[in-house]
Design brief:
heterodimer, A: mainly alpha, flat, B: about 700 residues, mainly alpha, Amino acid/polyamine transporter I, 2 strands, about 70% helix
Chain lengths: ~60, ~700
């Protein structure tokens, strides 16, 4: 039971973008070593602006 | 061998269960039939479609190649290109394609009985809708996430490409107007609904500030807060509607709500996204997915009986009071998103293909998510048909046919060939906490009554009024989110178009351009919304077919692009996979357009209505045709003249676009078949370094190029 709840929680975190920053950090350190990464706040603000700069469409 | 045999046996059982359920539905003779048959017929059909047809498309037609690196892997930047876990991407993709369309369309189509709509929802998704989504996703992925418009231009040519662009923009306008119209019809003279929906604005502002500055990226936390506040707002609405001093202040006429929506749409398009659009997006996604899950559980637990007959006379005589026109082609136009939706091609190209880990996953994400969408449409059909048909028609028939009182509505329903007790209409309205349910068109209120019945039955019959407003709120919330986002998309398109002529206008951050383009797009849909609300011949019945035709037109563009690419890939032998749905879609859409333009039946043809209006204006009094359409006075005639002219011209425009795109595509096909060298814009093959779970196989930094 506890494992299932844990899995659901992880899935929610993943799907809502809550842990997007952690993954960004991993990619950043791998690809741009030595360059300081964005802070959490900066990252989410940049991501939000980018996502909605071209919001695409959605189904009615 | 034994194992293979067992697997074979499982699929035989699934097929038999599906066949049995379909048989029960088709042969039902009784007053009611249990929704369980429909539920299992759908699930068995989806399972077979996914296991056999989708697999055939994946392996034989598209030949997905998991050793080939996807754009997400090659161009990984941790933001828009990023290999995403397939379960997570499935959720994102589904949330993006699931909207109000699959909920509203089946409710309207239910006037022809539950069977015609249901067959198209299920057969259509397996053979057309899911195929379109999956192939478009695949082709866009092979082109680094190019949009449908770009692919149309590159694969077909500039003429087809331009037609596709104009199609997308005009469809956007009609879409936004129809969706906003659904909200207006659901909220008019409902203080409860108006209050709870208005409260979503301060809630969104609060969430926006919280997410931007207080706790950036804590999406789950802020969503929990938002949903809690939303529930409070629904309770607050109940309190308002009971209160003698506030109920009046929160009761609005349709035109007041139209004005509010237009102002809101403009402000939302101009404001920065983080303040309003982004938090609304989270809120409505959570509400949407949550409510759909609740509904699935509710239907599975209660297995309600469906009261609507399997077919009604309106399927064949074309004189339905909800919308006019016979089964072919109008049921296919009306169902729209649940079976085949062109809008999905916009999402399946652009956003999702940049996130796919492995090529073979286009099957679960493209085809699978569309099956889910279709299942939502099936549930909407169940919810609508669990209502007493008399109540259904009293809510959905064109209001001009129903009159204002429960007595006149009951009499009108009798005229349609069904019966309802006036007292039942009063009681139903009371149970959901509304003044009246007569002529509450647009689909949303009907669906909300159905959902509230199912939910309150799970709880032993309690709190129907709360669940009704919960459902209204959930529909209105995500329709408004679509209106926000769609207005912004439209604004960018206009800025882009004008930018071709005058560069500075294309800069999205330039305030004057922002204001002008926002005003243009809001003005365009606002016009149709206003005209729809005040249409003397009823609004939703006039505009919804246009919306349906527009949506199917976009699907024709996607399928034409798909067929072209298949032929270019040397897959002429399998081109029928997209060409047959295209032919069907073209037949449906062009027949519907033909009837809307040329039909001499004034219930259907825009120009027949227009001619009647012209004649009435000339003679100075309403002629018999307009009287038969229930126009009230000669003062309405000029408005009828304008509306029918605009709607008729739009129908012609849409039909022309379809013809242009298909002819231009056919020109390319015949060139290729005659042996012209295909020009492919596919990104060349590169080896993938990810295993099927998305982990790097070699110790090479991911994303390094």
């Amino acid at each position: 039971m506890k494992e299932h709840l844990r899995a659901i929680w992880d899935y929610l975190k993943e799907i809502s973008g809550e842990n997007a920053y952690d993954r960004y950090l991993a990619v950043h350190t791998a690809t741009h070593p030595g360059k300081p990464p964005m802070s959490r706040g900066e990252f989410y603000r940049a991501r939000q602006d980018e996502k909605f700069a071209n919001p695409g469409s959605r189904c009615p | 061998m034994n194992n293979g045999l067992r697997r074979y046996a499982v699929w035989v059982v699934v097929a038999l269960v599906g066949a049995l359920c379909w048989g029960m539905l088709a042969l039902s003779r009784g007053e009611t039939i249990n929704a369980g048959w429909l539920l299992f017929a759908a699930i068995a059909s989806y399972a077979i479609g996914y296991r056999f047809y989708a697999r055939f498309i994946q392996r034989r037609v598209l030949e997905t190649d998991d050793s080939r690196a996807t754009p997400a892997e090659r161009l990984n930047n941790g933001r828009d290109f990023e290999p995403m876990d397939k379960r997570v991407l499935f959720g994102h993709h589904f949330a993006a394609i699931a909207g109000a369309g699959p909920l509203v369309g089946p409710v309207l189509a239910a006037q022809m009985g539950f069977l015609p709509g249901t067959i198209w929802i299920i057969v259509g998704v397996i053979l057309a809708g899911a195929v379109q989504d999956m192939t478009t996703l695949f082709f866009s992925m092979r082109r680094d996430g190019k949009t449908l418009g770009q692919m149309a231009r590159e694969e077909i040519g500039p003429v087809g490409g331009a037609a596709a662009l104009i199609a997308v923009l005009s469809i956007m306008v009609i879409l936004l107007a129809v969706l906003a119209l659904v909200v207006v019809l659901a909220l008019a003279s409902s203080p409860w609904g108006s209050f709870s929906l208005a409260m979503t604005i301060p809630i969104a502002l609060l969430m926006g500030v919280y997410m931007r500055f207080l706790r950036p990226g804590r999406v789950l936390e802020v969503s929990v807060i938002g949903v809690a506040l939303l529930i409070l707002a629904i309770f607050g609405g109940g309190w308002i509607s009971e209160s003698s001093s506030y109920a009046g202040a929160w009761t609005f006429t349709p035109n007041q709500i139209v004005l509010a929506l237009i102002v809101y749409g403009f402000v939302a398009s101009v404001l920065p996204v983080w303040l309003l659009l982004a938090p609304r997006d989270y809120l409505s996604t959570f509400m949407k997915v949550g409510t759909i899950l609740l509904l699935a559980v509710g239907i599975a637990v209660t297995l309600p009986a469906m009261h609507m007959p399997k077919t009604t006379d309106f399927a064949f005589n074309g004189h339905g009071p909800v919308f006019a026109g016979a089964l072919f082609p109008f049921v296919f136009i009306t169902i729209a998103c649940g079976a085949l939706s062109g809008f999905h091609a916009l999402i399946a190209s652009g956003t999702t293909p940049k996130l796919i880990q492995k090529e073979s996953q286009v099957r679960v994400i493209g085809y699978g998510a569309m099956l889910m969408e279709s299942f939502v449409a099936v549930m909407a059909m169940i919810a609508a048909t669990t209502l007493d048909p008399g109540v259904y028609f009293a809510m959905n028939a064109n209001p001009v046919l129903l009159g204002d009182t429960v007595q006149s509505a009951a009499k009108a329903v009798q005229g349609f060939g069904f019966s309802v007790d006036p007292q039942t209409l009063t009681n139903t309205a009371k149970a959901v906490g509304e003044e009246s349910i007569i002529g509450r068109t647009g689909g949303a209120p009907t669906l909300a009554v159905g959902i509230s019945k199912i939910f309150s039955n799970v709880l032993g019959g309690a709190a129907q009024a709360f669940w009704y407003h919960f459902a209204i709120m959930f529909e209105a919330l995500f329709i408004l989110t679509t209106v926000d986002a769609g207005t912004r998309v439209g604004r960018f398109m206009i800025q882009d178009l004008v930018g071709n002529v005058w560069r500075p206008f294309a800069r999205t951050s330039w305030l004057p351009a922002n204001l002008v383009a926002s005003a243009l797009i809001v003005g365009a849909w606002g016009y149709f919304l206003y005209a729809g609300v005040n249409d003397p011949l009823g609004g939703i019945n006039q505009l919804f077919p246009l919306f349906g035709i527009a949506n199917q037109l976009l699907a024709a563009v996607a399928l034409a692009v798909g067929t072209t690419i298949l032929i270019k890939m040397g897959k002429l032998r399998y081109a029928w996979v997209t060409a047959v749905p295209l032919a069907w879609d073209a037949a449906v859409t062009l027949t519907a357009s033909w009837q809307k333009i040329f039909s001499s039946d004034p219930a259907i043809g825009f120009f027949a209505q227009r001619a009647a209006a012209v004649q009435s204006i000339q003679s100075g009094k309403l002629n018999d045709t307009l009287k038969a359409l229930k126009a009230e006075s000669i003062k309405d005639a000029p408005q009828i003249l304008v509306n029918t002219t605009v709607d008729g011209v739009l129908s012609i425009l849409f039909a022309l676009m379809i013809i242009i795109v298909i002819l231009d595509a056919a020109r390319v096909w015949f060139g290729l078949i005659r042996g012209k060298e295909p020009e492919m814009s596919e990104t060349p093959w590169q080896e993938s370094h990810l295993d099927s779970d998305g982990n790097a196989i070699e110790r090479e930094p991911v994303g390094a190029r």
